[in-house]
Amino acid sequence: MNEGFRSKRGIVLSITLLIALIASGCTQNKTVKVGIEENFRPYTYTEGSEKKGFEVDLWQALAKKSKLTYELVPMEMGELNKGLKSGAIDLAIAGKTITDARSNDLEYSDPYFQTNLVILTASENSTIKGKDDLVQKAIATENGSPGFYYASEIQGAKIHGFSKISDAYEELKSHKADAVIVEERNAQDYIKNTAQGSVKIAGEPFQKESLAILAKKKNKYIGKINEALQSVSKDGTYEDLYTKWFTGKPKMMPNKIKKEVEHDLQHEA
């Protein structure tokens, strides 16, 4: 092999290696766009120009562990899956469930929270005592939420879907809807801070849901996020954040929620 050929080959290999290194550096320094819900207390909300909530704080802790540079992108719940599929956002941490991820062919992280749905009615309502009383009722809920999908399965229900949960609450307060189906902690926050005694929770919580961070299939983030979630669970960060936003220690840590989800999926299959 002549020296000229070897020299040219060496230059080509050097250029290829340089391009690979540059590409790798660009990937590491990329700003990850993370979709959050616009106003869903106590998970995510904006106060002034500051984004707050349990999911915001948890994401910041996970991003720090994963060494990810990010931008939080507030969106309506119904637009998050579209944003993931179109590439407008890379990840979503916004009360999104594993059930939602599976039905929309999205990848999901290990679960970070377990919750339930509840029914809100007007305080004076005595006819709706639980989910079995919702047949042929007018139900307000948030588009794209677990509550929306649950309501869609109720026989004869008249669904009033809204882009914001606050609008669903207003529909109930103005007696244009018989009930709201919504996530339990958000309902509790609304009753405590906004409703002024006008609504109540009817019956017991139902429809267990496990929340996870969602992404497109074949992404490069979920593995790092799962490692970070394990880390913040072990070092006390998760428990501190839970206590800050929900008062009291968590009944289930993420690793236990994960085992329960795996058990449920195995029995489902």
TrEMBL record:
* Domain Solute-binding protein family 3/N-terminal positions: 31-249
Cite the InterPro entries for this sequence.
Iontro_rcpt_C, Solute-binding_3/MltF_N
Which source organism does the UniProt entry give?
A: Paenibacillus allorhizoplanae
| Domain called Ionotropic glutamate receptor C-terminal: residue spans | 31-248
Q: Which domain of life is it from?
A: Bacteria
Keyword set, alphabetical order: Signal
Protein name as catalogued: Glutamine-binding periplasmic protein
Establish whether keyword Signal is in the entry. yes
> Where does the chain cross the membrane?
none
Q: Which Pfam families match?
A: SBP_bac_3
